[in-house]
């Protein structure tokens, strides 16, 4: 009997082991989660209540900020309107109206200012605009029967306006409403004031924009009833409150909140309140809200309890469903295992045929694709070898009988040198070097300095055969000189630069090389005519295709391109051949970029990784 139980515990079936493991791995975390859940619920509810309260306050701040921005906008318009400032400066400076139309001119100036004030306040909440000039002239969009604008000069804060500069504003805070018709519905008002300055330092006038405090408190009343919202000054004085009687009081709990461990939870008369605050960026005033904590978390507490019960029931149902699904989902694994054994015996033609949208279906499809990829890889390797042979064939086609040609050229050079024609002798010497490197078969790669010497000889030969000479400059770091590169990787680029970029005329070319991260960076640039944007994009696309056949097809019809970028030819070797050979030699780490602008020349950059390369090419 005991042996039977032990055999059951061993669970030799993978399917049964998976089911037991799933139950254990789900049951233990679930029990731990349920235990920790109760511990974390309280903190989570508090944090969520604080977040919601803060979000509501930020929403309120958006509405309040719109009011303050509206006042700020009116003050800006008055201060920056050129026509208003011109008229008001003239009046403040003692402008006299003379002639038969003096009174009419005075009336027109006043109406221009009044119309602009009316246009500023026609859209938006009701705002009172007052302009006081230093000569005693007043402009306002309200009747003098409501309030005499000149009485603003007697306000205790008015003296501070002279110290304001530029667009600096002064917010006096909540002050008793001065407009008779509005005192009943809004005992207090909020204002913004600025000094108006001309060319002198002293102000020529002042602008005051006023709204009623109940515009702000009405926003507070729209919030949920259990939340008490107020606006405080930087000195914690209440500036706006749903209960107008509290305006002007000092908020007594700001200091108490900062002294507590959790400033968001405030205890008032043995009851916890949730406190949130947000500072208005325009005025520096603070929005503060107080919410009874029990009310704030009541809805969240109900939600958490429902979620807890839902999780418990869902867990039980899920366990039953999991056992059923595990048995169903693991059936394809058995078939996949059999196919793997067949492949292991060497049969690459077998396929699992397992398909589906789940992981097992994806695994079966991937396994079949992997087998297909093996066959494709074998074919790709064969194609790569063919491509490499094509590139080598392009090099072989440039060869001629070496020994006979070198001996003849050497004899010609010596005979020319004896006759004193050193320039022709130098030309023959450079040609001999080029031909020797072209037909050499014992070197697939050479040091960079030899490749650069080859480019120098080529430029020297080209300069001798064309009317205008091109100049080649070098900027090579010492360490890069010994870098091994495939032979004839620079000469075709130089050839294209001379023929297509410089159009066989005078110009500048430069070869620079330096160490880059994990390799070397070689740059060939010219001062030629550059490449049109459309041709440049097509060339980049063709180089990115990574196929010699595609690149060569793309080169057809474009040999008359620009600036060393379109594939020119030297003994059948062009930029296409260079790109392909470098890609075969260095693999995907090799990079070639082409940059060109019309009239600015072309820059071709090669990145060659540091690695041991095959000397046979």
UniProtKB/TrEMBL annotation:
Primary location group: membrane
Question: What residue stretches are annotated with the HAMP domain?
Answer: 327-379
Segments spanning the bilayer are: 308-326
Q: Where in the cell is it found?
A: Cell membrane
* Presence of the UniProt keyword Kinase in the record: yes
Listed Pfam families: dCache_1, HAMP, HATPase_c, His_kinase
> What SUPFAM superfamilies does this protein map onto?
ATPase domain of HSP90 chaperone/DNA topoisomerase II/histidine kinase (SSF55874), HAMP domain-like (SSF158472)
InterPro entries named among the record's database cross-references: Bact_2-comp_sensor_kinase, dCache_1, HAMP_dom, HATPase_C_sf, HATPase_dom, Sig_transdc_His_kin_internal
The record describes its membrane topology as:
Multi-pass membrane protein
**GO cellular component, as recorded:** plasma membrane
Q: Which GO terms describe its molecular function?
A: phosphorelay sensor kinase activity
Q: Which domain of life is it from?
A: Bacteria
Q: Does the keyword Repeat feature in the UniProt annotation?
A: no
Swiss-Prot/TrEMBL keywords: Cell membrane, Kinase, Membrane, Phosphoprotein, Transferase, Transmembrane, Transmembrane helix
Q: Which PANTHER family match?
A: SENSOR HISTIDINE KINASE YPDA
In Swiss-Prot or TrEMBL terms, this protein is called Two-component system, sensor histidine kinase YesM
Q: In which organism is this protein found?
A: Paenibacillus algorifonticola
**Taxonomic path:** Bacteria, Bacillati, Bacillota, Bacilli, Bacillales
């Amino acid at each position: 009997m005991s042996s039977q139980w032990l055999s059951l515990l061993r669970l030799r079936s993978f399917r049964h082991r998976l089911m037991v493991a799933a139950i254990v791995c789900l049951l233990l975390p679930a029990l731990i989660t349920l235990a920790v859940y109760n511990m974390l619920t309280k903190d989570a509810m508090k944090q969520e209540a604080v977040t919601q309260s803060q979000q509501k306050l930020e929403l309120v701040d958006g509405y309040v900020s719109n009011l303050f921005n509206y006042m700020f906008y009116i003050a800006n318009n008055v201060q920056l309107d050129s026509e208003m400032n011109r008229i008001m400066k003239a009046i403040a400076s003692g402008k006299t109206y003379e002639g038969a139309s003096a009174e009419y001119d005075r009336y027109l100036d006043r109406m221009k200012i009044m119309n602009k004030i009316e246009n500023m306040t026609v859209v938006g909440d009701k705002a009172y605009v007052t302009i006081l000039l230093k000569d005693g002239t007043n402009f306002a969009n309200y009747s003098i029967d409501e309030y005499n604008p000149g009485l603003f000069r007697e306000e205790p804060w008015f003296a501070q306006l002279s110290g304001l500069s530029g667009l600096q504003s002064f917010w006096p805070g909540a002050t008793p409403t001065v407009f008779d018709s509005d005192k009943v519905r809004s005992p207090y008002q909020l204002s913004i004031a600025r000094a108006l300055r001309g060319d002198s330092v002293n102000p020529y006038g002042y602008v005051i924009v006023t709204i009623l405090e109940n515009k702000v408190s009405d926003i507070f009343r729209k919030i949920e009833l259990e939340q008490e919202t107020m606006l405080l000054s930087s000195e914690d004085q209440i500036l706006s409150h749903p209960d107008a009687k509290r305006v002007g009081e000092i908020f007594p709990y700001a200091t108490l909140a900062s002294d507590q461990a959790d400033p968001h939870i405030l205890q008032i008369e043995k009851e916890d309140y949730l406190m949130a605050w947000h500072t208005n960026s325009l005025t520096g005033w603070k929005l503060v809200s107080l919410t009874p904590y029990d009310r704030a978390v009541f809805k969240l507490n109900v939600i958490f309890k429902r979620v807890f019960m839902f999780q418990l029931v869902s867990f039980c149902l899920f366990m039953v469903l999991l056992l059923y699904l595990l048995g169903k989902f693991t059936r394809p694994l058995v078939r996949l295992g059999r196919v793997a054994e067949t492949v292991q015996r060497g049969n690459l033609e077998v396929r699992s045929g397992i398909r589906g949208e789940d992981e097992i279906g994806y695994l079966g499809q991937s396994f079949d694709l992997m087998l297909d990829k093996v066959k494709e890889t074998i074919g790709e390797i064969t194609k790569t070898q063919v491509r490499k042979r094509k590139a080598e064939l392009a090099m072989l086609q440039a060869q001629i009988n070496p020994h006979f040609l070198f001996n003849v050229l050497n004899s010609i050079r010596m005979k020319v040198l004896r006759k004193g024609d050193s320039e022709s002798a130098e030309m023959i010497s450079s040609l001999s070097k080029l031909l020797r490197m072209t037909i050499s078969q014992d070197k697939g790669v050479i040091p960079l300095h030899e490749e650069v010497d080859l480019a120098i000889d080529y430029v020297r030969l080209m300069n001798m055969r064309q009317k205008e000479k091109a100049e080649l400059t070098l900027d090579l770091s010492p360490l890069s000189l010994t870098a091994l590169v495939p032979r004839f990787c620079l000469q075709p680029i130089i050839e294209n630069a001379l023929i297509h970029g410089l159009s066989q005329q005078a110009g500048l070319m430069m070869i620079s090389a330096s160490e880059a991260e994990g390799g070397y960076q070689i740059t060939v640039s010219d001062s030629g005519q550059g490449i049109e944007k459309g041709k440049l994009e097509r060339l980049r696309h063709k180089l990115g295709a990574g196929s010699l056949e595609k690149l060569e097809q793309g080169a057809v019809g474009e040999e008359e391109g620009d600036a060393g970028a379109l594939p020119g030819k030297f003994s059948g070797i062009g930029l296409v051949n260079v790109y392909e050979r470098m890609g075969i030699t260095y693999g995907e780490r090799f990079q070639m970029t082409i940059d060109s602008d019309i009239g600015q020349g072309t820059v071709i950059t090669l990145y060659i990784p540091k690695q041991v390369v095959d000397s046979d090419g």
